[in-house]
Design a protein that fits this description.
heterodimer; A: 568 residues; alpha/beta; Rossmann fold; Transcription Regulator spoIIAA; 3 domains; 6-stranded mixed beta sheet; 4-stranded parallel beta sheet; globular; B: 213 residues; alpha+beta; Alpha-Beta Plaits; 8-stranded mixed beta sheet; 4 helices; 10 strands; 23% helix
Chain lengths: 568, 213
């Protein structure tokens, strides 16, 4: 396709929301190479504003475009208005950099950040006029997906030529080399896929076999992306993103990411200070985001923040720490740093009682929580957001009521603080995830989850806290999509054909279309949300996650023991 | 006691091609980031949210190209205008370009007497040029627009100060920012409605110059 501004009339572009989403040409966009040997399109299956905040996309874009033989471009899910325009004008989805239809690339690499984007991937393929099923595609780009939602690749097994499991830094280069060699040698699609099976971490649905999660061992010494594209439409996370460490050793028993990104690998403080300055110099972002699964668990965090405080490039520079644990490091930070962005504080106690926090291995106690809340006292923080899960394994009625009790306690402290804090709480149903100790656990039924939510809300009816919650059906669906087998791939296809897309967006989520898809496929959601026996073979057992199943089993039994349950 | 020196720099820039679809607030954000990347000696605002001390004119309507957008930046010390222009131009997205930098910025006329804005309209069809001229040249032209659920009626009145055309372009001078005179943005919206499907023949809307009155 030509430039977007040439392909559509001015009036058509004015009809769509934020047309700059589709224009490209941002600062730090990669230089356009003439005749690269391999053309790759990095696809994020959600809006531009979300995708431009995605760290994986930044890593891959910078890594691939440093290679003189490869040109990597970007494409995002078009919002529904742009999709309508494309369909009305019979135009395919195109890349931002050169306006090239996605079908003309050698390879499409799809990031799978969360399960609710699965139908968007199919929408992107359809808009690009690329066959949805790998075994029906005779030509066109190889479609390869990766990301935390692909840790169990079976739900996307009908669609992908290959699925990357684990850290992508090294894999992405190897994948490109393999596809490039296959392209040069004139290999068939099947031969290319066969060649991909030889890469560690790559699972190919045509040749299913065991696969080992890839770990990027050189992470600590590696250079993060330091010249990311500056979005022309404000991104959801408006900050310069610096990943200070990967992995987490806390071992929360419900957390897939905690296991997916193991082992914990920290970048040295000295390097991070150097990278920070380069990153801010290249982006001009106001905030430097220190990213990780739980930033306050970085061993030398106070030292890092102190050094960053001392090295300011511009007056308005500040530090944003999005994931904090309620612990001593956080306390030290809150007390000492002047330059941490003081918008709101977000914490995830997850459970309302100590017993349940011990069961899920959350490793924080009520004193920690109270201390952190008290420490926010004289600071400029105005809001305190708390995340809780309901329906956790071995949860009792007292645990559900405990959520409300803890919130009331925190609210009481906040009332005594000046400036006052607004407390908001977010409730979500527990979703059992593969490769976690709770992968065998059942999910509470929608009715049970709803009932628990009602209990918490009733207990908090006189409270000033803002309460939000995730719809129960979304929790159920996420369980099915996470713990799914090959049949779930057919379910996703059926849901897409029933009109599902943007499932993570309330205004577009179509529960009835998903329910119909379950019926069409003869599937019962309960089969995926049930208690799985420890002795059962799991659909995703072919993935060596580098966390022994015996360890997960022991963790599960330990949790049960705290709950006083002996038989699992 | 040290007095803070404030030197104002007026930056005139163009916003054309794909950049004309970047919204006003995003444009401000892009320029602030560019200033930070250059680590210029700019002054910052007070208050909780510190930002470069910078003032922009009225927002350019989305989709309008412009060769006369401006902002005024407060600096701690004087810097070379040509140097600033060159450096800024290395930091802007495609379609945005600094055309001139004036340091110190000349004084603006006092009071709010409105602006004289010159526009160029490009067409792909001569018939639509004539219909557009019919619409613009009559001061009695009336149109209604809906804003926040309320219908408001406007009259062109003295909004169009001059008109010049050839086969496929019209150059028009508009008054705006004065009482009882509709803005160019409203006039263009009404014109598009008046043209109906023929609006697709109006292919480019460009702001050529802006003069404070």
């Amino acid at each position: 396709m030509k430039k977007v501004t040439d392909a559509f009339t001015h009036w058509e572009l004015l009809q769509i929301e934020k047309p700059a989403r589709y224009m490209g040409g941002e600062v730090n966009q990669a230089e356009i190479k003439t005749n690269p040997e391999l053309r790759v399109c990095l696809v994020f299956p959600d809006l531009y504003e979300l995708g431009m905040s995605n760290l994986a996309l930044k890593i891959f874009y910078e890594t691939l475009n440093q290679n003189p033989r490869i040109m990597a471009e970007r494409a995002f899910s078009p919002w529904v208005d742009m999709e309508d325009l494309l369909r009305r004008r019979n135009l395919p989805l195109f890349s931002l950099e050169t306006g090239t239809p996605l079908s003309e690339f050698d390879m499409i690499l799809v990031t799978l950040p969360y399960e609710m984007t699965f139908t968007n991937i199919l929408n992107i393929l359809e808009l690009s006029r690329i066959g949805l099923l790998w075994n029906e595609r005779k030509s066109g780009p190889m479609i390869i997906a990766g990301g935390p939602s692909a840790s169990n690749p079976l739900p996307v097994s009908l669609f992908m030529d290959a699925v990357a499991i684990g850290d992508g830094e090294e894999m992405i280069v190897e994948i490109c080399e393999t596809v490039l060699a296959a392209k040069k040698s004139g290999a068939t699609r099947s031969e290319t896929r066969k060649a991909l099976t030889r890469l560690e971490g790559l699972w190919v649905p045509e040749f299913p076999g065991p696969v080992r999660r890839r770990v990027f061992k050189e992470f600590s010494a590696s250079r993060p992306p330091l010249k990311p594209v500056i979005p022309n439409v404000q991104a959801i996370h408006n900050r310069a993103a610096l990943e200070i460490f990967r992995g987490c050793i806390k071992g929360c028993r419900f957390c897939n990411a905690g296991y997916y990104y193991r082992p914990k690998r920290e970048r040295p403080v000295e390097d991070l200070v150097k990278y920070s300055l380069e990153l801010l110099n290249n982006t001009g972002e106001e905030a430097l985001g220190l990213l990780s699964l739980s930033t306050s668990d970085y061993c030398r965090l106070p030292e890092l923040v102190k050094l960053l405080d001392q090295q300011k490039l511009y007056a308005e520079q500040n530090i944003s720490i999005p994931s904090m644990r309620m612990n001593e490091n956080t306390l030290a930070l809150l007390e000492n740093s002047k330059h941490i962005r003081k918008g709101g504080l977000t914490f995830a106690p997850e459970a309302g009682t100590q017993k349940l926090r011990d069961i899920i291995n959350k490793n924080i106690c009520e004193e920690d929580i109270i201390s952190v809340v008290k420490t926010t006292g004289s600071s400029d923080y105005r809001t305190l957001k708390l995340y809780f899960m309901m329906g956790l394994p071995f949860e009792t009625d007292a645990d559900v009521e405990g959520i409300a009790e803890l919130v009331l306690k925190i609210e009481g402290i906040c009332r005594t603080l000046k400036p006052r804090k607004q407390v908001s709480i977010s409730l979500s149903g527990f979703v059992p995830k593969p490769f976690t100790p709770f992968q065998w656990s059942p999910q509470a039924s929608m009715e049970e989850l709803k009932q628990k939510r009602i209990v918490v809300r009733q207990r908090l009816q006189n409270s000033n806290s803002k309460i939000s919650w995730r719809e129960e059906y979304l929790c159920l669906l996420e369980s099915v999509l996470s713990r799914g087998d090959e049949k779930v791939s057919h379910l996703i296809l059926a849901a897409f054909k029933n009109g599902c897309k943007f499932d993570g967006w309330n205004e577009h989520f179509k529960q009835s279309a998903w329910e119909k898809a379950f019926t069409d496929c003869g599937l019962d959601p309960a089969a995926y949300t049930r208690q799985i026996s420890i002795s059962e073979k799991l659909p995703w057992d072919f993935v060596d996650f580098q966390v022994p199943r015996a360890f997960l089993e022991k963790e599960y039994r330990d949790a049960a023991r705290i709950a006083g349950v002996e038989d699992l | 006691m040290n007095e803070t020196v404030e030197i104002k720099a007026r930056v005139t820039y163009e916003k054309t091609r794909q950049a004309r679809y970047i919204a006003h607030l995003d444009t401000i954000d892009i320029i602030c980031k560019a200033l930070r990347r250059l680590q210029l000696p700019y002054q910052v605002t007070g208050g909780c949210h510190v930002r470069p001390k910078i003032s922009f004119g009225a927002p350019l309507p989305l989709g309008h190209a412009s060769y006369c957008e401006q902002f005024v930046l407060s600096l701690d010390k004087e810097i070379n205008a040509e140097y600033l222009k060159e450096r800024l131009n290395q930091q802007l997205p495609q379609g945005m370009k600094v055309l001139a930098v004036e340091i110190p910025a000349g004084k603006e006329p006092k009071g709010n007497n409105g602006d004289l804005v010159k526009y160029r309209f490009e067409f792909s069809d001569a018939g639509t040029v004539n219909r557009t001229l019919d619409f613009l040249k009559n001061p009695d032209t009336e149109f209604s627009l809906v804003s926040k659920g309320k219908v408001k009626t406007f009259r062109l009145g003295g909004a169009v100060q001059s008109l010049k055309s050839d086969r496929l372009t019209i150059e028009a001078e508009f008054m705006q920012g004065c009482e009882d005179v509709p803005s160019v943005s409203k006039i263009v919206t009404a014109l598009a409605e008046y043209l109906g499907e023929a609006r697709d023949h109006l292919t480019l809307i460009e702001r050529i110059s802006l003069k404070k009155l």
